[in-house]
Write a structure and sequence with these properties.
The protein is mainly alpha-helical. Among the domains are: 69 residues, no CATH class; 44 residues, no CATH class; 61 residues, no CATH class. It contains 11 helices and 3 strands, in the order E-E-H-E-H-H-H-H-H-H-H-H-H-H. A hairpin with a 2-residue loop joins strand 1 and strand 2.
């Protein structure tokens, strides 16, 4: 006797489970589901509706509602689980009469291997996709939609819902914005973030210069430090624009006394960068070895005091 496996079928935008293939086919016909979607491998990454699983067919409702937020072709074709290969056929139980010879029971039908779930976002432009995620993290779904389309994706309710859900459960969804191309000095970012939280973008424009200021930078700063509701996002960390130790990273410590004095005071994110600068320069001066350059050590210590406002 064949063992009936749980079958799954896609109807009106969502997956339903059924006790066997015959019942699944009856449901597909009754509710105008996808006739090619019957399968015994459980769809991955989606919720399964079990409301029809334990009901007799005469208890079924006259109609099932469309999945919330799903429209158009997505009501017929699964958005996350492409149908691969022909529908699965489950062996039927043979009819046995009293006069029939006794036969040994048939072996259980092997369960079909579970299809590997492939994220449909894998083939998108990942840079643009991450930009869409960052805007979604800030609650700016309009900007997120534009970036998602530029990444090569199709914007619909399913996409919007996924971005909202993942942004709500992910810290720094999409990672950090890339600020390096806007000519911003690392040591100025503390002031820039404070101005952005206050909505003083005119002051930021003066700091970075009119050649670096544009709408793109304005929107990204607003997304990072204010979000959709123009509410200061205090939990946002000060970004490290350049790789520690690189030439660009070192530019923040250069300049006259006026340029660096008090820019790395205690309690600011820049303070740790100043300490890293001092450690590197003290090591270069030979501090901790017999060949220490005392004049260089004194010069480094003096400049560090100026930087931290002492």
């Amino acid at each position: 006797m064949a063992i009936d496996l749980i079958n799954y079928a896609f109807i009106r935008g969502k997956w339903y489970s059924f006790p066997d293939e015959s019942t699944a086919q009856q449901a597909l016909q009754k509710y105008s589901g996808n006739p090619n979607s019957v399968r015994t491998s459980k769809p991955v990454g989606v919720l399964i509706d079990e409301t029809l699983l334990n009901l007799d067919m005469n208890q079924w409702p006259d109609a099932v509602a469309d999945a919330q937020g799903v429209i158009g072709d997505a009501l017929i074709n699964p958005p996350y689980n492409p149908i691969q290969g022909p529908p699965v056929t489950v062996a039927q139980t043979p009819t046995v009469t009293p006069s029939a010879a006794v036969s040994s029971p048939s072996a259980p039908s092997p369960e079909q291997p579970e299809e590997e779930y492939v994220d449909p976002w894998t083939n998108l432009d990942q840079g643009k996709l991450n930009l869409a995620k960052r805007y979604a993290d800030a609650g700016m779904l309009g900007r997120a939609a534009t970036a998602f389309k530029e990444a090569g994706g199709v914007w619909d309710r399913t996409t919007s819902d996924r971005l909202r859900t993942e942004a709500a459960s992910t810290s720094r969804y999409g990672g950090d914005f890339d600020w390096s191309k806007y000519g911003i000095n690392q040591r100025d970012f503390g002031a820039i973030s404070d101005y952005a939280k206050q909505g003083k973008f005119g002051k930021i424009k003066k700091m970075v210069g009119k050649n670096n200021w544009n709408k793109d930078l304005h929107v990204k700063l607003a997304a990072e430090y204010q979000g959709k509701d123009n509410t200061p996002r205090d939990e946002v960390p000060t970004p490290q624009i350049y790789k520690v130790g690189s030439k660009d990273w070192g530019q923040q410590f250069k300049g006259s006394r006026k340029d660096i004095e008090g820019k790395f005071v205690k309690g600011t994110p820049e303070r740790s960068a100043a300490k890293e600068w001092r450690q590197r320069h003290m090591k270069a001066a030979g501090v901790g070895t017999k060949n220490v350059d005392k004049a260089k050590r004194k010069k480094v210590a003096k400049r560090f005091k100026i930087m931290i406002g002492k």
